[in-house]
Amino acid sequence: MQTQNFDVLGMVIKVLTFPLYLQGPFLVFAWGATDPNWLLAAKRFFLLLPVLVFILGCWMTIASLVSVIIRQNRQEFITALFITWWDFGKSVVAFWGGFFIFVFHLFIAAVELVKILIVGVWTIIQEILFMPFRVMGNIGNGLMTTNIPWLAISLTLLWCILETTIFTYVTSPLVMDTFANITGETISETFIRVPLFVFLFFIVLGSYAVLASFMDAVRAKDIGSIIGIGCIEIIVMLVEVVFLYREFVDSLVPWMAQHSENFELGIAGTLSIAAFAWFGIRSLSWFLFASHGTPTILTIIKGKGMQLQQRDTAAQPKSLRSTSNLLHHIKNDMAWFQKKGEELLASFMLPPLQVIAVGINFCTLLLIGRHLFSVPFKTFQDITDSTTLLKSLGHANLQPARENARMRDKQHPRAMGVINPKAAK
Predict the structure, then answer these.
(1) d(Cα 383, Cα 121) in Å, to the nearest integer?
(2) How far is CA 181 from the centre of its chain?
(3) How far, in Å, CA of 398 to CA of 30, rounded?
(4) What is the pLDDT of residues 337-364, one digit of tens each?
(5) What is the rounded end-to-end Cα distance, in angstroms, of the chain?
(6) What does the pLDDT read at residue 161?
(7) Domain extent listing, the chain
């Protein structure tokens, strides 16, 4: 009879300590010290954590079954124990499957990263290639919508520069001969052309200024101004015809003589052709652009400010926009990187954390009769912070105690001869 009692007691002890017979072989197999490197790494990555939690679950299950004797809600406790094992099985499967999900997300992220890099490089190339056209488009749009006749001003100045360049080239020999006769020395052609160009530029621009003043007097029907400015305009015409356009016509005389016999133009013919050339050039340029550009230039020179007419619909200034919206693409890419990084981190960390959470649930089920974590975890928000967990375990006064300690530190900066740096500040 005594022998039978010892056999029953031994059987009970073996049942209560059965994890001792399993944990050694399981750990040796999961550790895989004698296996090849690839198999060793695979076992330690896929099997070691589940085996550890499985052994912990076995010991907690035995302790929980023993504690059933003194528990009140035995049926609910046993049900919770089975659910814990069910959560363990799901967490292990999720842990194994999470590896493949992580690899898939990593592959997709790498492909998307390569695509973003290619699109980014192509976008930058587009920005560089189309920047001049975009700037020209914005400038053209500004010229078409503004009240200031910038196009007329630009054409007027460009025409003055072109006419000055031609007359500088034509009159340079005459000016060199004149200075040589006066000084008795030969002056370099390059040296004489720069001041001559500036001088002729102001003469041509002044000619348009006189013409603009004459047209203003005609519009105002001011007889005295018309006569006075008309005389000035005639003198300006004679100066330009005699000194500028005459030289231009003289340069054309060899061409005229080449196509005619006994050709003699004479001074009257030369001045007549020069006068007609001056009148034609001034008329064409005036009615095309100078009539709008010259008054604005004179207003700017006088410094009186431009009195411009208000349009019915004011042109709204447009910012220099990118054709490919580079900044918009960069913002979208940054948001995608943040989202994809969170997905990768979640797919890497949540599967093993679920297995660990189930192991903790085994312990809390034994200690307080309920689970601490709700598995499975889908996002990082499902992992409750430590303060909330402690409050759920009955430590509701933990946070107020910490706040009281901080308040005491602020009120008493000196304690035991030590100064609190934060309170001192």
Answers:
(1) 40
(2) 67
(3) 40
(4) 777 777 777 778 888 888 888 888 888 8
(5) 81
(6) 92
(7) 2-126+328-372, 148-302, 384-419
